[in-house]
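Memo to structure team: turn this sequence into structure tokens by end of day. - J.P.
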Amino acid sequence: MAHDHSHAGHKHHAQIDADAGDARVAWAIAVNMFLTLAQVVGGIFSGSLALIADALHNFSDAIALIIAFFARKIARRPADPRMSFGYGRAEVVAALVNYTTLIVIAAYLMYEGVARFFQPEPIDGWLVVWIAMLALVVDLITALLTYSMAKTSMNIRAAFLHNVADALGSVAVIVAGAAVILFNWTWVDPAVTILISLYILWHVQSEIGGTIRVLMLGAPPDLDPEEVASAIEAMDGVREVHHVHLWSMQENQPALTAHLVVEDCAWSQAEQVRGLVKQAMRDSFGIGHLTLEVEMAARSCPKTMRFGHAADQSGEN
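Reply from structure team:
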């Protein structure tokens, strides 16, 4: 009974943490929607393309947070017969959607910035500065709401990077507005727009690879497949390991499947050997989900591959 009570208490606290995280994301969505409206109105009345560009990026922040919010909800659904691995990868898919959206936005901003160089328009520098300062305050509030969650969630991290890029964009817009006020340098406005787009692309290229790796079933970047395989083969009773597949079920959940070839002399303890290998993988590499097919050395698979499987390359079963 004590065990059941403890388990129930753990689930209760986990639910409280999840609900608190959802509330922070919801507040971040609300303030970003408000800011987007303020920036669009300010950009129209001031004539600033950089401010409208920042508004568009800020709107993408809100959309990113909305996607992240619902992905968090979906990811917590339990596994079922048709989704036996659960729904955790909903957050990874959401991250990819958000990064792809950022690429589209950056391309559009660059196009508009170049076009404005050839067709400059008058700009109200003071209105640009005041709206951009409001934007910066909201960006900082959003960052505070999502920072802690971004450390452990690829999904929230993608939304957080939207916000970081927007905060720096707001600073750049303030600089552009000040340049207009002090020197009447209207060219700074489209220049800042182009810089914002380049910064967005730089952020995306540094983060999107990890998202794609998870979706493509690639090995976790912090685990060396050869090191994992060698560690298994170094254990007593193990002849070799082949058909190794090392991937991430979700962002922070490495998984492994392999064929474990047990020495003939240790075949009577094959289950014990398998159990020891599983424990070693959990302790040394944090691999919690393992599936090991045990083979006797004298009857192991012919034409084996250390990593992957021949069928993976030929398309055959």
